[in-house]
Design brief:
Elements lengths: L3 H28 L4 H5 L5 H10 L33 H31 L4 H29 L2 H17 L9 H29 L2 H55 L9 H4 L1
Length: 280
């Protein structure tokens, strides 16, 4: 954005931001395979599924037939009400709460972090570095948390990242942005690592909690509730910064992640550790 804006203006930036995702969408439609569970319930796609599984190092013959053992008979209900049936009510409400508060925390940073840093005496450019550090930490955190979930399951990696989000926000309460600028920026990067690790990998949790027939509904409803939190973050951030300044703002970010930690601890159907599902 820093390179495009001076040369092409905001319209050029919007064109780039609009066209590139459309191109990526076309590439994904052509190259991204369907999920194995989706194809397993459609016999005419079994040859395609066998080919996909061979790409995943599974020894499958071309004329194999498939049955989804884990979800066999699990989808007694479809549609929105299925999110609250067959023992999923608790997990659905908990996931909604986690998405709501996590996206509130994420968008409170996107909307108000530069304003908070400039109000503490930093220049606009240094405030921009704080937001960049937050996003860079998020990229690293999402990758590391995904790798941890693949090996250890989702419960402890997500809970530990939530705890890290709380600790990293509250550890910055006593840091002066003007006197210890580098420490503040590094701390914000660490906070972004933990918070975005949780937000990015909760989609995988949704994919595990909900069976294939209602997976899109479950994930979309969680994200819709989360977006309500994102919208409210604009008002919450303004009110907290006005009333409590940087300390109140960082306190709010930590409290939001405490609620996320509690919500994810309540979820029953976490992704199991590697080998656990096979053992059962």
């Amino acid at each position: 954005a820093g390179q495009v804006l001076p040369v092409y203006g905001w319209r050029g930036l919007f064109v780039a931001g609009g066209v590139l995702p459309l191109v990526l969408g076309i590439v994904l439609v052509a190259a991204l395979p369907e999920s194995p569970r989706f194809m397993a319930r459609r016999p005419h796609r079994w040859p395609e599924l066998a080919k996909l599984l061979r790409r995943m190092a599974r020894d499958v013959s071309a004329d194999a037939s498939f049955t989804d053992v884990r979800e066999q008979g699990a989808e007694k209900h479809v549609g929105f009400t299925a999110l609250f049936r067959d023992g999923r009510s608790r997990d659905t409400v908990a996931i909604w709460g986690a998405f709501f508060m996590c996206l509130l925390a994420v968008y409170a940073v996107f909307s108000w972090l530069p304003s908070m840093l400039t109000s503490e005496g930093l220049s606009v450019s240094l405030a921009g570095y704080g937001l960049s550090a937050y996003n860079l930490g998020g990229v690293i955190g999402a990758v590391l948390c995904a790798l941890a979930i693949g090996r250890y399951g989702s419960r402890w990696p997500l809970l530990l990242c939530c705890a890290g989000g709380v600790a990293s926000a509250w550890m910055l309460l006593g840091v002066s942005a003007t006197r210890h600028t580098a420490l503040m920026i590094v701390g914000l990067g660490l906070h972004g690592l933990f918070v975005n690790a949780v937000q990015s990998t909760m989609y995988a949790l949704c994919a595990y909690v909900y069976p294939t027939g209602v997976r899109a509904t479950g994930t979309a409803s969680a994200l819709a509730v989360g977006r309500v939190g994102a919208i409210l973050s604009a008002f919450a951030g303004a009110a907290v910064i006005t009333a409590g300044g940087a300390s109140g703002y960082l306190l709010m970010l930590g409290i939001a992640m405490v609620v996320v930690l509690i919500a994810l601890a309540v979820v029953q159907r976490h992704i199991p550790r590697r080998g656990a599902a096979t053992a059962r």
